Amino acid sequence: MSFLIIGAGISGLSLARKLAENNHKVVTIDQKDHIGGNCYDHFDSNGIDIHQYGTHIFHTENQGVWNFLSRFTQWYPYQHEVKALIDGQLVPIPFNFNSIEQLFPQKMAQSFIEALLNEFPFNKKVPILKLRESKNKDLQFLAEYVYEKVFLHYTVKQWGVKPEDLDPLVTGRLPVFVGRDNRYFQAKYQGIPLHGYTGMFEKMLNHPNIEVRLNTPFDKSMLKDFDHCFFTGAIDEFFDYQYGELPYRSLKFDFLTFDRPYFQSNSVVNYPCNYDFTRIGEYKYFLGTQSDSTVVSYEYPEPFVLGKNERYYPIINEENKALYSKYLALAEEQLKVTFLGRLGDYRYYDMDQAVARVLELTKSRGMV
Length: 368
Ligand code: UDP
Description:
Number of strands: 19
Structural class: alpha/beta
CATH class of the largest domain: Alpha Beta
Bound molecules: uridine-5'-diphosphate
Strand order of the largest sheet: 8-7-15-16-17-14-18
């Protein structure tokens, strides 16, 4: 069959490869001048892997996803750690026993750790909104502290609303950790593609059945030339916003180069309570690059405004999910078009979830 894929991000490209391997002809279009969507990266003159749309760290428990991507890249075994500036200290995030001991006097820290261990299993994650429900006095104090210092101001900057006004899954992505593991993710498979995300995608596209057309906006008249179309763009845009716009948050990055080997202690430092940016990413850490200068990005959240900036995050709450389900009903009537990806499904997918969606989709349609 002949397929049109709209969008050359991680969803569209993974799908292109799967279809091509099943002997289908695939044309992938993207309005941007590069492949990779928001995962796009490039190497600067010092060999530093710059993620143009902000820091991207791959992590998954899904062996099928890991095996699929590993056909197109080797991995640098990077394990992500984040620090946050809280009360003048750089402490590990997710908030854990080490963060507690850094921030509180010894006796107080000890009683918080004991209270946590009495209520939750060791080495487990607890969502902040769940910790806030504890009846224990020490844990109530700790929960309010963490809520205020880690979550509240960061979330207001990032989303424009308080944590409790978002789907609990959003803040649940960053738990409180009942243990000493300083890593941001505990997933079995974690890493950065050794030759960058773009390098991995280029290998994925290296197949005679795939053609990529960049700088090519989608037009519905294209549909007639193909047997079926997979749309990874914004679902509300496809339907001409007939029920109104699905809301998104956007980001603005200020990239700065410093003439010194390192700028900060690790790849990502969060600033929940200070400044207008949420975090600073330093790119040389991702592949352990050695160089005399270093590149960082300051990350400023902002509302998504059509025609002005890019969609980054769907704003998942009850109202927006209801609006999405109206578009989903329209999508189900489109027999020639399948929607997928962060913008097509209006889901806050991580990279591995976007690939898992593709693998499930192709499996459900009888392709291996
Ligand atoms: N979050 C927070 N404080 C932090 C880090 C994260 O409140 O220091 C909350 C915030 O609402 C954020 C969400 O947890 O949007 C998910 O964070 P994550 O790092 O997973 O976001 P991403 O890397 O996808 O932007």
